[in-house]
UniProtKB/TrEMBL annotation:
<keyword id="KW-0819">tRNA processing</keyword>
<keyword id="KW-0949">S-adenosyl-L-methionine</keyword>
<dbReference type="GO" id="GO:0052906">
    <property type="term" value="F:tRNA (guanine(37)-N1)-methyltransferase activity"/>
</dbReference>
<protein>
    <recommendedName>
        <fullName>tRNA (guanine-N(1)-)-methyltransferase</fullName>
        <ecNumber>2.1.1.228</ecNumber>
    </recommendedName>
</protein>
<feature type="binding site">
    <location>
        <begin position="137"/>
        <end position="142"/>
    </location>
    <ligand>
        <name>S-adenosyl-L-methionine</name>
    </ligand>
</feature>
<keyword id="KW-0963">Cytoplasm</keyword>
<feature type="domain" description="tRNA methyltransferase TRMD/TRM10-type">
    <location>
        <begin position="1"/>
        <end position="233"/>
    </location>
</feature>
<dbReference type="Pfam" id="PF01746">
    <property type="entry name" value="tRNA_m1G_MT"/>
</dbReference>
<dbReference type="GO" id="GO:0002939">
    <property type="term" value="P:tRNA N1-guanine methylation"/>
</dbReference>
<keyword id="KW-0808">Transferase</keyword>
<dbReference type="InterPro" id="IPR002649">
    <property type="entry name" value="tRNA_m1G_MeTrfase_TrmD"/>
</dbReference>
<dbReference type="InterPro" id="IPR016009">
    <property type="entry name" value="tRNA_MeTrfase_TRMD/TRM10"/>
</dbReference>
<dbReference type="InterPro" id="IPR029026">
    <property type="entry name" value="tRNA_m1G_MTases_N"/>
</dbReference>
<dbReference type="GO" id="GO:0005829">
    <property type="term" value="C:cytosol"/>
</dbReference>
<keyword id="KW-0489">Methyltransferase</keyword>
<comment type="subunit">
    <text>Homodimer.</text>
</comment>
<comment type="function">
    <text>Specifically methylates guanosine-37 in various tRNAs.</text>
</comment>
């Protein structure tokens, strides 16, 4: 996969040279190309922003540098066309499903903005002939889109074949399609069996795979009820067994009474 990133802070993306993403780049699985937007600003100050029409606080990124930058990146490979991703708090939510969709693309082009964003005519221009997505990683505002790009590149990159040591890791992720119907993952443990007085639940040491699977599902239901209760309403009724329904009923009653409904390290 090829990924281009145009930014006034290309140095922000140094973390993409380490860990799994860094190794994927070394192997050639990921071809990440960074571009300094100011290289396409030709005044003495290399200006990329100006005051907004209509007044108001903040500055808006100018269309000329962005247009020139995008044209040059696109012209370098005229036979291919990228999917452009614009990080913005006003975009559609970035989800695991969207990450999987992006992982199937051969070429992504990210345009992280600063200030009040990019002049809207830029995306109107390129959206007329390319797929342009405005995407948000959450309901909050950052100083710039670079952090959002880091999040998305890591989420997408780890889904590419050969990036994760164990391919099942991506399949079993929270929010992965088919992974326990979008339940959150429950608690996890490793050696030693006791640490600072806290013991690993005995069921995980039993070797009984059926009971372990049941325990993990119960804990996933508990954690989802505690941290993301809105996800429970999306569970398909046909995917719930008798035990699921009994546990969800119990959790609902506890919530109504004001008792905690998740995070219980029970062994049965």
């Amino acid at each position: 996969m090829r990924i281009d990133i145009i930014s006034i802070f290309p140095e922000y993306f140094a973390p993409l040279g380490v860990s799994l993403i860094g190794k994927a780049r070394e192997r050639g699985t990921l071809d990440i190309r960074l571009h300094q937007l100011r290289d396409w600003a030709h005044d003495v100050h290399r200006t990329v922003d100006d005051t907004p029409y209509g007044g108001g606080p903040g500055m808006v990124m100018k269309p000329d540098p962005w247009g020139a930058a995008l044209d040059d990146v696109l012209d370098a490979d005229p036979a291919a066309r990228p999917r452009i991703v614009v990080p913005t708090p006003s975009g559609v939510p970035f989800t695991q499903k969207l990450a999987m969709e992006y992982a199937a693309e051969p070429w992504l082009l990210f345009t992280p903005a600063r200030y009040e964003g990019i002049d809207s005519r830029v995306m109107a221009e390129y959206g007329s002939r390319l797929r342009v997505d405005e995407v948000s990683i959450g309901d909050y505002v950052l100083a710039g889109g670079e952090v959002a790009v880091l999040v998305m590149v890591e989420a997408v990159g780890r889904l590419l074949p050969g990036v994760l040591g164990n391919a099942r890791s991506a399949v079993d992720d929270s929010f992965a399609p088919g992974a326990m119907e979008n339940l959150l993952e429950g608690p996890v443990y490793t050696k030693p069996p006791e640490w600072r007085g806290h013991r690993v639940p005995e069921i995980l040491l039993s070797g009984h795979h059926g009971k372990i699977a049941r325990w993990r599902r119960d804990e996933a239901l508990r954690r989802t009820a505690k941290n993301r209760p809105e996800l429970l309403s999306a569970l398909p009724p046909e995917g719930l067994d008798k035990h699921d329904r009994a546990l969800l009923s119990e959790l609902a009653e506890l919530a109504e009474l004001g008792f905690p409904v998740g995070g219980q390290d029970v062994a049965d």
